[in-house]
Design a protein that fits this description.
Elements: H1 3-14, E1 18-26, E2 32-40, E3 46-54, E4 57-63, H2 67-77
C-alpha cells in the first residue's frame, strides 16, 4: 500500500537511521490513508516522513519543522 514510503524508510535504515515511530490513519470510508514515520538519523537528529494515499496514488514528503518544534519533539522522544 505505502510502497514509496516503505522504500524510502528502508533506504534510510540501510544508511544507518533508526526507526522510532510509525502510525497509519485511515479515513472512515477507507478511501484515504496517511502514514507518518519518525526516524533518528546518524547525527541523533529526527526526520519525519509522511505518505498520503488516495485512489492508489501515493505522495511521499519529508516534514520540515521549526527549531522550536524540533526541540519539543526531542524532549518527547528522549
Amino acid at each position: 500500500m505505502f510502497t514509496q514510503l516503505e522504500e524510502c524508510v528502508s533506504r534510510l535504515i540501510r544508511e544507518g537511521h533508526q526507526l522510532l515511530y510509525s502510525r497509519t490513519v485511515i479515513s472512515e470510508d477507507g478511501e484515504m490513508s496517511l502514514r507518518t514515520v519518525f526516524v533518528r538519523d546518524k547525527n541523533n537528529g529526527i526526520e519525519i516522513w509522511q505518505s498520503f494515499l488516495v485512489d492508489e496514488k501515493e505522495t511521499v514528503s519529508r516534514v520540515y519543522l521549526s527549531k522550536q518544534e524540533i526541540q519539543a519533539l526531542k524532549l518527547l522522544l528522549h
